[in-house]
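Hi team, as promised in this morning's meeting, here are the two structures we talked about. I've kept the exact order from the run log so nobody has to guess. The first one is mostly here for context; it's the second one we should focus on when we meet again. Sequence first, then the predicted structure tokens.
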Amino acid sequence: MSKPSHDTHPHAHGSAVEAVHGGHDSHDAAHIAAHVGGYIKVGAALLVLTGVTVGLSYVDFGSREMNIIVGMLVASLKAGLVAFIFMHLNGEKITIWRFLIMTTIFVIGLFFLTYLFHADPISGTSHSTH
């Protein structure tokens, strides 16, 4: 006794199935090839920016703080590329963008508070020992 085949009777909805699934192989391959090409370009850009980061580590921008700011700018650019392309944020809905913007504002606020702590503009409040 053989197993019954799924195609033992003609499909009345065969044309609908073909319309949904069939005929898209070449389109899918082109779509995937375009994405892979984009991923390779972004990967190359990340490698170049990593080289820029290493090169900038040997440049003196006048102060340690300025060196950190320049390094963070390059790192932010690399993180943005990863988020937009590899994490597919470039095609997300507005809600995700609102959360992303609020998170960015929050992080900038934390960096600013850290800067204020290290700048210590109020005399007599420093925690360092003299």
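And here is the second protein, the one for discussion:
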Amino acid sequence: MKEIAIGAGIAAVLFLAIIGVNITPLLFVALLVGTFYYFTQSQAKVNFQEVGSKKTSSNPLSFDNIGGQDTAIKELQEALNFIIRAEEIGRMGIRPLKGVLLVGPPGTGKTLLARAAASYTSSAFIAASGSEFIEMYAGVGAKRIRRLFQEAKKKAVNEKKSTAIIFIDELEVLGGKRGSHTGHLEYDQTLNQLLVEMDGISQDHEHRILVIGATNRADLLDSALVRPGRFDRQVQVGLPDKKGRAKILEIHLKNKQVKDHSIIEEIARTTFGFSGAHLESVTNEAAILAMRENQKKIDMKHFNEAIDKVIMGEKLDRQISKEEISRVSIHESGHAIISETLEPGSLSSLTIIPRGKALGYLRKSPKDDQYLYTVEQLEKQIMISLAGAVAEEIKYGSKSTGAKNDFEQAWKAAREIVECGLSPLGVINTEDTPQELIYKQCKEIVARLEEKTRQLLTDEQEALLKLADYLIAEETIDRETFVQMMAS
């Protein structure tokens, strides 16, 4: 049809030229239309080739190579059985699965799960990012969506496979709620095309396609995209627990020389809240630190340094006055004394070396992962947060701006006590309860715990000053040295 239209257009222009019609304006308009058409076509083609080649991984990856996501893997495997047992579900009259949505924080392994899914089902795999489909030119995104599905089928044919998996990362960019992008219908047109393509997926097709989407903002997705018949299943990909973190560390340490593999459990315990990406960065930074010291094997001190770097950032060459160093040391010592008093065994390391925006840092080592807290536990958190400023006040008679973040954490914990019904106010509705009453209750909690913290630090003032002096001299103290110092 394209060739016929071009031939007819040329013939018409020649005919008009023969009969004496001025065809210059027509040629000018045709040139503009052709240039625009060529530009939009090349935009769609070039960007899609990047999707289909650079981001397509042929490296085999199994679910055994992914740690910390046992529940997500089981849920995903259950969904993938719809592809593996296609003939059986066809006989049972079961509607084929079209899409699976992976929901979770960044760095938790959503892309790895999608790649492993392709290996698990022996499917062709092609990956793209939601941002690659959005352009300022109308229709380009929709064309890229069509090309994406065409390329998936083509790849399955080339690899002689009957199924293909399309992975779309950052799905919230492509699949955001329609009408939320004022004055830019390109988003809506692109989403509409994705809906059309997913509706066209059928078990009767020669090559079956499964779409796997990934997002950390499922609340932004259009309801038409997540309804049954499109993204049928949602798999939660959360942060790993201690057991999962240990497995992830073992995976990333397979190709590294570690002095003692028994320290993996300790590292997993001290990295609560870390994602798989964070843990990979910890192992990599630890190896770099060992190499800098010309060490052949990675030791625990390298991992401790790497964890601090991942949490707080690189050490800073910031020039600090002696008075500031003294104040920071007493501040951090206050945190350490109260933390160890209220939660024995919680202190992992203490330093006054500046990192990121922090002039000093206390790293705690929780015994177990914790997701629920009692009022007593929240009050301990508040006291630990307030301890730095209270320690400064004991020694210098005043507080400093270095306690700003500590105060914010203390107030947040106090508000959680009130909002969760753990305060004298009992169970409340934050919308119906006057904010002035909530504020007053939070202030009473913080003031009471601040006085309690001051009393504890006053009783331990000798140990407080001793620890601060040691920090000024050595800058960093680990748990073993801290225990020895407190025992002497």
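Starting points for discussion:
The chain has a mean pLDDT of 82.
The chain has three domains: 52-236, 242-312, 322-487.
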